Amino acid sequence: MGIDLPLIWAVIILFGVMMYVIMDGFDLGIGLLYPFLPDKSDRDVMMNTVAPVWDGNETWLVLGGAGLLAAFPLAYAVVLSAFYMPLILMLLGLIFRGVAFEFRFKADEHHRHWWDKAFIGGSLAATFFQGVTLGGFIQGIAVVDRAYAGGAFDWLTPFSVFVGAGLVVTFALLGCTWLIYKTQGPLQVRMIALARPLTLTLLAVIAVISIWTPLAHEDIAARWFSMPNLLWFAPVPVLVVLTVWQLLRQLRGEPHGGPFVLTLFLVLLGYSGLGISLWPNIIPPDISIREAAGPPQSMGFTLVGALLIIPLILTYTAWGYYVFRGKVDETEGYH
């Protein structure tokens, strides 16, 4: 039996995207929370919680994009053609927040507010357009003769805009629970208070998307409610409700790392629901990973490099978080 290269590469890309959402989600979420905390010292602490690790988090985004090009060139060409506008806006947002991240600490008092606004705007743009792209991807992409056949604005629909707004709520909650874990004192207390309405809002967003998706897309509804997918999908809503209940319960006490772990679990549950909805298609609604796969020779060659580099990325990421573990206060800084 030969090696199933399309399946292996699909798992690698799914893992890379999942790691990006987990690792960069709370990072972007901190920028989304800036408007709620106008005090300079609070913003300094918030930024210092991610200063040692934020740029490494985006390694996973590069891995996912490069893997898609290497293993599924058809999907790479079609997806980028369909979503070039929101993806460009997303990248501009990441550039703005990256520049603001570095220059904010070097700016004087008179100019710092401009970098704060760039950080907020960049975080919001990057998050929202990631969600819009995801929503457009779920809707499906028009393909004729192995080329994108849709219009420049097919991605812009009420559903994709709602998914974009939902991802803003998700990353804001990730950032909020990250700060509960990494900070202490009045800042942590404010984050605990803010996490409660964010949790309830995210639950509402999940409920709306869970109802809207099968109603608007018959192929996804058929996949959800057919066997054996129904057996895989049925536990997801139950686990979402139990996780939210436990998260709210922890927020009534003096939490630390628990809310962040539970929020990550919520994100993973949503990611699993997405996988059940689309698998094995890599270009919805009907082009599978095997139809979009590149030549076996190129997939095998690039797989060797991926299997060498992924353990290195995991190792330096784990080491970075280990070195900079613990609480952060206003007396500490990494710039």
Spatial strand order of the main sheet = 1-2
Taking the sheet with the most strands, its summary is: 2 strands, antiparallel
**Computed CA radius of gyration, to the nearest angstrom:** 20 Å
CATH class identity: Mainly Alpha
So, CATH architecture? Up-down Bundle
| Low-confidence sequence ranges | none
Output the number of helix runs.
Answer: 15
Query: Could you give the order of the helices and strands?
Result: HHHHHHHEEHHHHHHEEHH
Instruction: Note the overall shape.
Output: globular
What's the domain count? 1
CATH topology: Formate dehydrogenase/DMSO reductase fold
Strand content: under 5%
Q: Can you give a write-up of this model?
A:
Helices cover 76% and strands 3% of the residues. The protein is an all-alpha fold. It has one domain: Formate dehydrogenase/DMSO reductase fold, CATH 1.20.1630. The strands form two sheets. It has a two-stranded antiparallel ribbon with strand order 1-2. The protein has a two-stranded antiparallel sheet with strand order 3-4. Strand 3 and strand 4 (287-288) form a beta hairpin. The model has no long low-confidence stretch (mean pLDDT 87).
